[in-house]
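Homework help board

Subject: predicted structure for assignment chain

Our instructor gave us this sequence and asked us to write out the predicted structure in token form, then describe one feature. I got the tokens but I'm not sure how to describe them. Can anyone check?
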Amino acid sequence: MRAGSHNAPIRVADIGDFDVLIDARSPSEYALDHIPGAINCPVLDDEERRIVGTLYKQTGAFEARRVGGAMVAANLARHLRERFADQPPNWKPLVYCWRGGLRSGSMVTWLRLVGWDAQQLAGGYKSYRRHVIDRIDELCPKLDLRVICGATGSAKTRVLQTLAARGAQVLDLEDCAQHKGSLLGALPGVPQPSQKNFETGLATAIEKVDLSQPLYVEGESARIGKLSLPLSLVARMREAPRIIDIEASSEARLAYLLRDYAYLGDDREALAEQLGKLKEMQGKESVARWQQWARAGELSPLFAELMALHYDPHYQRSQEKHFKAWATRERLHADDLSDAAVADLAQRVLALG
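My token output:
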């Protein structure tokens, strides 16, 4: 236990020794990414941080520290009156800021004056960020992956969710990315996380994996929406010896897409605008037809042509190029992708071992 020593540096591995983890950075920094489980108690809010930064540039360090010090003192006083008011004498908080500098140092000083055994995370958020990258790169090559592939509309994500419900280890990359991975994969009203927060979520999920057991993952490209998968994870997926290809019929896939993407009909103009991004690849005439269907809410012919002309022609070629074991993949045929059929697919995936 290091929590009782003010001299030994506190590392990421020691976080569990403390009662609470406090992020002393501004709300916008916290929102961009933070250590899982941390609470945000800013010593400077976003506007105060901007003011102090401007003063530093215009008048120098002394004036910035004089004004900033008053702001910090006021914010710390508020936290002591409100957020920390009910903490017992033996409370042990761990505090961090960007680099483990003045902001977290100021909070630790005041908390110690009260009598609490407050500590500062060495290196701050930056040290945790290095930990995230290191852990992803260390663990990904050890994952025993079962990569589930299938053309667009093959219910791969639902199969993964069913596998997880049955106790299998699953890494749901689209859930982590808050995006379905395709051109039309943005979730309505749900922004994607920042790249850093996405990687934090991945590291947290991968650290929980039992490396002695299979881990099921969807065969994603290197990007999901605006986010990039870690290169070590992409490499592990592409070299995985076990590839499971769901070969669903076009009719089953279309029926599934119409259910799974039904919400696209709620904002027809946004759908048409998104389809406009395909003009260079698919030509103005085809895209104009698709946009007309989108604006009319005619999703059935739209999805049917998107499958036939956009998604499917690239699928086989892309899989052959990216997955080393594609030629020896295990194929699962499906003429139905109803909930019951997806449950059966999941059971057939598990039976493959």
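Reply (TA_rk): Your tokens look well-formed. For the description, you could write something like this. Residues 1-5 have pLDDT under 50 and may be disordered. That's the kind of observation they're looking for.
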